[in-house]
Every structure is written in structure tokens, then in C-alpha cells.
Write a structure and sequence with these properties.
Number of strands: 8
Distance between the termini: 14 Å
Largest sheet: 8 strands, parallel
Length: 256
């Protein structure tokens, strides 16, 4: 059985077949799904999905690209959601400098990243961190809030094997999805080779980043087997072992 640690099944790309797809996945090889909030609205819909399906849990948080929608009122609402019985994480939060180049926007991202990290510590929940082209500032913010005291995962890992060691020192897991199957994903493949299997989580980021041979199509948890197979090849173990260990990793992190 596979634990899907990061998906967005509330996305409009699933509007036509969401229920049938989720029932197929959860009656098949997927034991649990963490549906990830990325805005106030998607946090609401993630909680609604988790309430509808026993095997789905929610992460609540605001993605860096939507950090501008946060204020003290919306942040207070977010704090209230951390007490919901199906909420198991704060995320996805972090920094994204790929889309945002303006210094003021990046400053806003850093401020709300730190605040949401502190919220997770207060709520005793793990975090799901998004970091794109912002490695140095991500580490700086994490150290400023003593991230070693806050469990979590660096989702959709895209940096060097060396930086992965920095995250491991803080106790973090590395989220690995469909990108690891791409031929040009050399850094990620090297990272997977070096990171202990006990510190890896399987994820899709569905509907995005489908693995080969479905690259460019809508992603879903059905394709996690391809991710497990590539990790197994890189680490010279069986795909079953990858599925088993990463499932236990996710259960430990999210306390499920």
C-alpha cells in the first residue's frame, strides 16, 4: 500500500471525476492521502474532502504565491482550522522566487512563511514546505524559527544533494514525486541515492508533475508506482520496500 503525502484533489481538474477516482484509488493501492491547502479557499476545500473520505486528511496553509491574501484576520481563521480532527499538517507554506521577483513580494512571503511555521509549532503539527529558487532564504527562515523543533517535509525537492543534507540535519523528510522519473532530473536522482529511504516520502502534487510515461498529462496517485519503481532502482531495493518504508515514514510524520 502507498501513502500519498501530497495531492490537490480539490483542484478543478478533478471536477468531472473526483468521487469515482478517489474511490478507485482508496479501494486500490492507496491507503491514505494528504490533501494540501494552498490558499484560504483550497484549505476550506481540503478540509471538506477530508470530512467526506475517512482515508483523506488535510493540510491547512497558504502557498507563498498566495501569501498576499494573508492578514491577521485570515491568519486567525487558519489557526482555528489547526484544531480540526482531520487536519494533520500546516502547508503548503514556504517561498517561491521563480514566479515572484519583486523584493516587497518576497519579503511578504518570508514573513508569512515564518508566521505559519510558528503556527505549526504552536499547534504541534508538522509542516509541508514549498521552496522554489529560494534555497538560501528558505534555510534562513527555517533556522530563525528553530525548524529543528518543528517536524516536516520539503515537498517536491528540487535542490542539490548537499542542501538535502542540511534539511536532514533539521530532521526533515524529502518529498519525491514524478520528477524523479524524468531523464534530465540528475540532481534529484543523486539526492535520492544519498538520502536514507527512511527520510523519503512519496507524493504526486496531483494534478501536476505526472511521471514518465504520463509526463504532461493530469497526474494522480495511481501513478505513484512509477515513482516507487524509480526510487527502488536508484537505491537498489524492491519497489515493495520503497512503498512500505515511505508509508511508515508518512504515518510517523503525520501521526496517522
Amino acid at each position: 500500500m502507498i501513502f500519498e503525502s501530497h495531492a490537490h484533489y480539490d483542484d478543478e481538474q478533478f471536477n468531472e471525476d473526483r468521487d469515482s477516482l478517489l474511490k478507485e484509488l482508496l479501494n486500490g493501492n492507496i491507503c491514505n492521502i494528504i490533501n494540501i491547502g494552498a490558499s484560504i479557499e483550497s484549505t476550506k476545500s481540503s478540509i471538506a474532502l477530508a470530512e467526506q473520505y475517512p482515508q483523506i486528511y488535510a493540510a491547512v496553509g497558504v502557498h507563498p504565491s498566495d501569501a498576499g491574501e494573508l492578514n491577521e484576520q485570515s491568519f486567525a481563521w487558519l489557526r482555528e482550522q489547526t484544531t480540526h480532527p482531520k487536519v494533520v499538517s500546516v502547508g503548503e507554506i514556504g517561498l517561491d522566487y521563480y514566479w515572484e521577483k519583486e523584493p516587497d513580494v518576497q519579503k511578504t512571503q518570508r514573513y508569512w512563511f515564518a508566521r505559519q511555521m510558528e503556527l505549526a509549532k504552536e499547534a504541534r503539527l508538522p509542516v509541508v514546505i514549498h521552496s522554489r529558487e529560494a534555497a538560501e532564504d528558505t534555510v534562513r527562515v527555517m533556522k530563525s524559527v528553530h525548524a529543528e523543533e518543528i517536524p516536516g517535509v520539503v515537498h517536491c525537492y528540487s535542490y542539490s544533494p548537499e542542501l538535502a543534507q542540511e534539511f536532514l540535519k533539521m530532521g526533515y523528510y524529502i518529498g519525491v514525486g514524478g520528477v524523479v522519473t524524468f531523464k534530465n532530473a540528475r540532481k534529484l536522482k543523486e539526492t535520492v541515492e544519498q538520502v536514507p529511504l527512511e527520510k523519503i516520502l512519496l507524493e504526486t502534487d496531483a494534478p501536476y508533475l505526472a511521471p514518465e510515461p504520463y509526463r504532461g498529462k493530469r497526474n494522480c496517485s495511481r501513478y505513484l508506482g512509477y515513482v516507487a519503481e524509480e526510487i527502488a532502482r536508484l537505491k537498489q531495493v524492491s519497489a515493495e520496500e520503497v512503498e512500505d518504508v515511505t508509508r511508515k515514514n508518512a504515518q510517523k510524520l503525520f501521526q496517522i
